[in-house]
Amino acid sequence: MPAEDTIYKQMLKAYKSAEQQISLLQESIQECQSLVESLSNLAEQLQCCRCAAADHESVLLLTAYPDLPGRMEVKLVQSMEGILCKLQGKLETLQSARTKLYYQYTHALSSYQKISQEFGVQKATQRTATWPSIVDMLQWLWEIDRQYASICANRQWILDTLSYDRLGEIQALPSRWKLNSSDKNFFQDILAHVSFFMADVAGHS
């Protein structure tokens, strides 16, 4: 039926996009781990540099070169700023991906609303052993978008609140940055629920 074909194809398109954006999210977060680990190491070096500067009179080398800690700190901060710029670039890419995800959700919802009367409530809420209902899939798309946005916002907040006055927080960044298991399972569970639907609809397209 035309109404069914329309909404099923739109759902397939939306979930294909969701798969792509989720994959991008996971790959990007993983790629950033080496950056945040480097940032953490630099923060540790900067902390040591400041401790040495505070006690420089007791260190022969720093007594001979009293401006050395300052020069080292400038270089370390410059390196950290470079990494922070790279992390910000990664986040901006993820924000663009999230925009695509939100567009697919709103487009799927709009497509359903246009044919909802023809489609009917019973069909919209009907499930099978392998296919979720249209209502389920719309709800899950919304939840994927919300979770994706939350993950991006959390990483942006982490970057925005980093301070060279709180180097301990920067040193702890690797554990704060990576995706936790609940985030990974959340996406995997939803995609598993729609896998048969996607294969069936794609096979008949």
Features:
205 residues, mainly alpha, single chain
Notes on the protein architecture:
This protein is mostly helical. It is 85% helix and 0% strand. It is built from nine helices and no strands. It has helices at residues 2-54, 60-64, 68-119, 121-124, 134-161, 167-171, 173-177, 181-193, 195-203. Helix 1 packs antiparallel against helix 3 (68-119), helix 1 packs parallel to helix 5 (134-161) and helix 3 (68-119) packs antiparallel against helix 5 (134-161). The model has no long low-confidence stretch (mean pLDDT 89).
Strand-helix topology:
Blueprint: H1 2-54, H2 60-64, H3 68-119, H4 121-124, H5 134-161, H6 167-171, H7 173-177, H8 181-193, H9 195-203
Helix pairs in contact: 1-3, 1-5, 1-9, 3-5
Brief write-up:
The protein has 205 residues and is mostly helical. The protein is 85% helix and 0% strand.
The low-pLDDT segments are: none
Helix percent reads over 70%
Strand-pairing-aware structural class: mainly alpha
Question: Can you write the helix and strand succession as a string?
Answer: HHHHHHHHH
Number of strands: 0
Q: How many separate domains? A: 1
Q: Mean pLDDT, as a whole number?
A: 89
Give the N-to-C terminal Cα separation: 13 Å
Strand portion: under 5%
Shape: rod-shaped
**Can you count the helices?**
9
Main beta-sheet strand count, sense and barrel state: none
Q: Compute the gyration radius: what is it?
A: 25 Å
